[in-house]
Amino acid sequence: MNPEHLQRLVSLEMPFGKYKGRLIADLPGHYLGWFAREGFPKGELGTLLALMYELDHNALRHLLDPLRKPKRKPE
Predict the structure, then answer these.
(1) Half-sphere exposure of residue 57: CA atoms within 13 angstroms, side-chain side
(2) Which of 14, 16, 29, 73 gets the most CB atoms within 10 Å of its CB?
(3) Model pTM?
């Protein structure tokens, strides 16, 4: 597993579809499962979706929490 891919999961947004604009790390499991059944896209996006599917399927989403940027508190 490439550590850079884990960082991309929490920084790259889904570029199309129902969840366009949502971080790859925040895509719902059923959507990732659909890709797993129907086929992941080619290239980096497909690699990241497949990785996120594995993390979700194995209940490892929490491993991404330390990589997320902290949310700014309103002043």
Answers:
(1) 12
(2) 14
(3) 0.88
Q: What are the CA-CA distances from residue 24 to residues 64, 73, 75 (Å)?
A: 11, 23, 29
- The answer to whether 46 and 62 have CB atoms below 8 angstroms apart is no
Which tens digits make up the pLDDT trace of 4-27? 999 999 999 999 999 999 999 999
**What contacts 60, CB < 8 A, 6 or more positions away?**
54
